[in-house]
Design goal:
Blueprint (H helix, E strand, L loop, with lengths): L7 E4 L15 H14 L3 E5 L5 H10 L8 E7 L11 H8 L4 E7 L2 H8 L3 H17 L3 E7 L1 H7 L1 H13 L4 E6 L6 H14 L4 E5 L6 H10 L4 E4 L13 H11 L7 H4 L2 H12 L16 E2 L2 H9 L17 E2 L7 H7 L9 H17 L7 H12 L7 E12 L2 E12 L2 E9 L2 H13 L10 E10 L8 E9 L4 E8 L2 H26 L1
Parallel strand pairs: 1-2, 1-8, 2-3, 3-4, 4-5, 5-6, 6-7, 7-8, 9-10
Antiparallel strand pairs: 11-12, 12-13, 14-15, 15-16
Helix pairs in contact: 1-12, 5-7, 6-7, 8-9, 9-10, 13-14, 16-18, 17-18
Length: 526
């Protein structure tokens, strides 16, 4: 069997990714992400810019105490400044002291930046690049060079752009990374330029793409086709402005569709969980339509699609979702037909029970007339079907609940009281929250965790309110959609009422019941 060509994966989530708007990682967050990426076997993990801020310095101090199993930690920096020699430059000194075997520095490869930003001569810029790499090499470092703004520079002045690469190569750089820093290059341009550069350089070539034209992933793939063997990106495409190239799309494209080796096959099967892990740490709700790892990436709604997928998944799925740790979802809505219900409930073997299928379809139709919407509330649909089939067993019984919102010491506080029964045991619990729904959520789980410890991993990640028939003003019906998540998957539930608290409570209870029933089923199967 022919050995597959290896593509090096270089993650810059902690540095480039952290520059994205609304993204902030604590030191603890950074350490957790490094641990997870190392577990997955990423070749290189860029930790940040030592010397640029106190948190970066603290990060490298802490990482010096740890030993990575699979990955190499990389410290990021720039070429020396014009006012310092290499051995006196404080940023280069910080790179040396960061304690990593590998360092990466960026330098200008676009003459526009040399003239208008650095305001030095083109020759002097070449000296900055050469001196910096030579100095770091003399300190025993493996040095990578980021050719900043390379594609813009090459299109305007190819001779000079190439000179910057040749200086980096002759000074000892062991990877030369071509950067589309402004994100303006297009795939056909990238492929053509990278192909030319790979013929000029002996050093392995890398690609670092930004997504300002929506082509970062495509540009990365084009670069690999042209000969690049070293790929930069971030988990989920986090990054400044429009983000960086998304490694959760790049890796499966290269490995599954193009036959390259990026990660161990077994690790690839957990790519979706990695994506959601980083979203959770960043406190960002995952977008449903993200390729490969998104909640909706393998979701089917229309009856024709569902029918075809049931006969052969390849009809509407470009890869089996299990290859990246995702799952097929069949959505139930007004577009659903008999085939949708059969696909959704295949485990219940309803093919020979047409009356039951008809009853489920009619129930869905009746509930949607009232305002229910099951395409985003699959867990509520699952519970409803279990009740219709007579196999639903309630894991707890709610005796009552109460919510109080009041001002205490110039602070508005919500307090929820929940009384419920598990078996013959009655629980009466009080909890506070930053709002009535949060307080109810806290009280409900506080009461149930002693009986169902796995509920500690349950997390409410999205809460949506929709007013139906607003012409009825305060008497209008409220629809609440809640998305919950544990360490493995996420699911949606729905509540409907003229009272927003009741609607929220119903959606909350459905989400908790679904989690409990799912865990009990898994336990029984093992």
């Amino acid at each position: 069997m022919e050995k597959r060509k290896k593509i090096e994966i270089y993650d810059t989530t902690l540095r480039d990714g952290a520059q994205g708007e609304s993204i902030f990682f604590t030191l603890h967050d950074q350490m957790k992400i490094v641990e997870k990426l190392d577990e997955f076997g990423f070749n290189f993990i860029e930790g940040g810019w030592p010397g640029s801020n106190p948190k970066a310095e603290e990060f490298f101090k802490e990482m010096a105490k740890k030993r990575l199993k699979n990955s190499k930690l990389v410290a990021f920096g720039s070429t020396r400044r014009r006012t310092f020699s290499a051995n006196k430059d404080p940023f280069l000194k910080a790179l040396v002291e960061a304690g990593t075997d590998v360092v990466i520095i960026f330098g200008k490869s676009w003459d526009l930046h040399v003239r208008d930003v650095l305001r030095i001569s083109l020759e002097e810029n070449l000296d900055l690049i050469g001196d910096s790499i030579s100095y770091l090499k003399s300190k025993g470092k493996t040095v990578f060079f980021d050719a900043e703004h390379f594609f813009d520079g090459y299109k305007e002045n190819p001779e000079y752009a190439v000179k910057t690469l040749l200086v980096a190569e002759s000074s000892g750089a062991e990877r030369i990374v071509l950067c589309d820093t402004n994100g303006g290059a297009l795939p056909f341009e990238v492929e053509e330029i990278v192909k030319k550069i790979c013929k000029i350089l002996k050093t392995p070539v890398g690609i670092h793409a930004h997504n300002d034209s929506g082509t970062a992933v495509a540009n990365t793939i084009a670069a690999v086709r042209a000969g690049a063997v070293h790929v930069h990106g971030t988990i989920n495409g986090f990054g400044e402005r429009c983000g960086n190239a998304d490694l959760t799309a790049i890796i499966p494209i290269l490995q599954i569709k193009m036959g390259f080796e990026c990660l161990d096959e077994e690790k690839l099967h957990h790519l979706t969980s990695l994506s959601r892990y980083v979203y959770e740490i960043a406190n960002i709700v995952p977008p449903g339509n993200q390729p490969f790892v998104g909640y909706s990436a393998f979701a089917h709604k229309g009856g024709v699609h569902v029918d075809a997928v049931g006969k052969n998944p390849r009809t509407y799925e470009h890869i089996p979702p299990e290859k990246v740790g995702n799952q097929r979802r069949v959505l139930v809505s007004e577009l659903s037909g008999k085939s949708t219900i059969l696909q959704k409930l295949r485990k219940y073997k309803l093919e020979k029970q047409p009356e039951l299928i008809k009853r489920i379809l009619e129930t869905v139709g009746e509930m949607e007339k009232k305002g229910y919407q099951f395409e985003s509330a699959e867990a509520s649909f699952e519970l409803m079907v279990r009740k219709l089939l007579g196999i639903y067993k309630k894991p707890f019984h709610v005796e009552g609940f109460r919510v109080i919102v009041e001002e205490r010491n110039a602070r508005v506080v919500a307090e929820a009281t929940v009384k419920l029964k598990v078996g013959k045991t009655v629980e009466y619990t009080v909890a506070e929250g930053n709002g009535p729904v949060n307080a109810l959520d806290n009280a409900l789980r506080k009461a149930l965790i002693p009986f169902y410890p796995f509920l500690s991993s349950l997390r409410l990640i999205d809460y949506k309110v929709r007013i139906l028939h607003p012409e009825k003003a305060t008497a209008a019906v409220t629809r609440v959609l809640i998305e919950s998540m544990d360490e493995k998957e996420s699911w949606g539930t729905i509540g409907l009422s003229e009272n927003i608290i009741e609607a929220s409570w119903n959606a909350l209870v459905d989400g908790v019941e679904y989690k409990i029933l799912k865990e009990i089923e898994n336990l029984n199967q093992t």
